[in-house]
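SAMPLE LOG
Freezer: B-3
Tube label: C17
Construct: single chain, 146 aa
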Amino acid sequence: MKSRIGTQKLHWTPRLLARYALFQLPAQALVVSTLLLVRPWVDLPSWFFWGFIVCWVLKDVILFPFVWRAYDWDRSGRADSMEGLRGQAVEPLTPSGYVRVRGELWRAEVSGGRVLVKTGQAIRVRGSRGLTLLVEADCGEENGDL
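STRUCTURE (predicted):
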């Protein structure tokens, strides 16, 4: 099964940049407020005050390439979707239990609740509901995603 990660180009959108910037504003406001409140009691040179604020903003700019995916929750056709992946039942799914997909243990339910899955049987992810995977028994012979 070919992975969908390589087929979809991931990029930053203006909406994503705005979302990230807006989520950084409360922390920025707290830092500025704290510095303003401390300034009368501690002799802070103005270069330190402004330098600290610039460093705080630079921190957010530098971290953005590493954390932007966490702010991109409304992308359709998620590249990290588990739908279609194969795994293996760790315990009987009667109709719910645990499965292993890509080496991770997940709570799972048999989609539709019709066919029960035995321990060690191959499964295929058909969707999710919260953090619970909706799976069905897989009769395929390849175990590429296990």
